[in-house]
């Protein structure tokens, strides 16, 4: 599901360096997390929607790669980010 403009602006303001920073890894992870939450609810209701399930798994993989990058760069930033987003720490 798409993230509304207002919610996207809130996430960019909260996790970005400024209100125009939509490309940093932290902002991308926050936006992906928001999309994943919406798609998870959709897939719970529509159990046979396999196209959406595949897209959801692709988003989870993309978020995992970004989190791995953040963890390699700055472990403290990684811990703060997963705590604020409510993501489990399972990146090796």
From TrEMBL:
<dbReference type="InterPro" id="IPR005290">
    <property type="entry name" value="Ribosomal_uS15_bac-type"/>
</dbReference>
<keyword id="KW-0694">RNA-binding</keyword>
<protein>
    <recommendedName>
        <fullName>Small ribosomal subunit protein uS15</fullName>
    </recommendedName>
</protein>
<keyword id="KW-0687">Ribonucleoprotein</keyword>
<comment type="function">
    <text>Forms an intersubunit bridge (bridge B4) with the 23S rRNA of the 50S subunit in the ribosome.</text>
</comment>
<dbReference type="GO" id="GO:0019843">
    <property type="term" value="F:rRNA binding"/>
</dbReference>
<dbReference type="InterPro" id="IPR009068">
    <property type="entry name" value="uS15_NS1_RNA-bd_sf"/>
</dbReference>
<comment type="function">
    <text>One of the primary rRNA binding proteins, it binds directly to 16S rRNA where it helps nucleate assembly of the platform of the 30S subunit by binding and bridging several RNA helices of the 16S rRNA.</text>
</comment>
<dbReference type="GO" id="GO:0006412">
    <property type="term" value="P:translation"/>
</dbReference>
<dbReference type="InterPro" id="IPR000589">
    <property type="entry name" value="Ribosomal_uS15"/>
</dbReference>
<dbReference type="GO" id="GO:0022627">
    <property type="term" value="C:cytosolic small ribosomal subunit"/>
</dbReference>
<comment type="subunit">
    <text>Part of the 30S ribosomal subunit. Forms a bridge to the 50S subunit in the 70S ribosome, contacting the 23S rRNA.</text>
</comment>
<keyword id="KW-0699">rRNA-binding</keyword>
<dbReference type="Pfam" id="PF00312">
    <property type="entry name" value="Ribosomal_S15"/>
</dbReference>
<dbReference type="GO" id="GO:0003735">
    <property type="term" value="F:structural constituent of ribosome"/>
</dbReference>
<comment type="similarity">
    <text>Belongs to the universal ribosomal protein uS15 family.</text>
</comment>
<keyword id="KW-0689">Ribosomal protein</keyword>
